[in-house]
Amino acid sequence: MEIKILSRCDADEAQHIATNSITRLDELDLSTNPYLTEVKSKLVAETKILSGALSVERKHEYTNELANLDLNFDNRVICLRKFIEANTYSSDETIAKNAEKALDKLESYDSTFYKLGYEKEIARAFSLVEEYEKPDMKPVVESLVGVTTPIMELKTVTNQLNTLYLKNQDIQALKEDTIPSTIQKKVVIDIFNNELLPYLMVMKRVQPDTFGETYTKITHYIETINTKIRTRRNRPASEEEENSEAE
Length: 247
Fold this sequence. Notes:
This protein is mainly alpha-helical and 247 residues long. Helices cover 77% and strands 0% of the residues. Helix 1 runs parallel beside helix 8. The relative contact order is 0.17. The chain has helices at residues 11-26, 34-57, 63-87, 93-107, 118-132, 138-142, 148-176, 181-206, 208-233, 239-246. The chain is rod-shaped and about 100 Å long. The chain starts with 10 loop residues before the first helix and ends with a helix.
């Protein structure tokens, strides 16, 4: 009976079969076999692409971490505003006036900018902190009670948020530029079903001493996976269905 990898084989299973099969092919002397050398080279190249796709897809996206850090960022902006507003009620007229200046500066950026998207809120926070650190504003801010600490906290969390956001963007971009494993696994399976297995099936009859063991080991890997696939379906599959799946 002709053996093929069933089409419902997932990407991990296809990679497993391919990696083990390449190891078995490495044991053969292919110096006088240009066809199998070419098929093996193609299989190695396509399996490497599949492995790369699986690796990229498993890279962790920082969705939850970003959400938590963004909440901390929001709270730091709110905290800063409340401390500045509190100083506007100071009995010290100079402090109260300086607080108004600091509050005007914050309002020029819209004190609810933390509700914007990551790019805009990060950019505004960096710019706001930079404004507060300028020579004309620094003494004003330092005269206020309890304001320097929330400014430094905002600066710290903005740097953290920006770093994590950029890391997450890099991962997303990498995933977008990578061939999905669900597509690449079909390329690998096609090499097995249409090139490698038909050739080895013939050669194990023509040269059993050379190809018999290799064919047996590779088809064993495949049958092991095929059995798992059939089990997942929770119903027996006819030979016709199996052949249809492999096409």
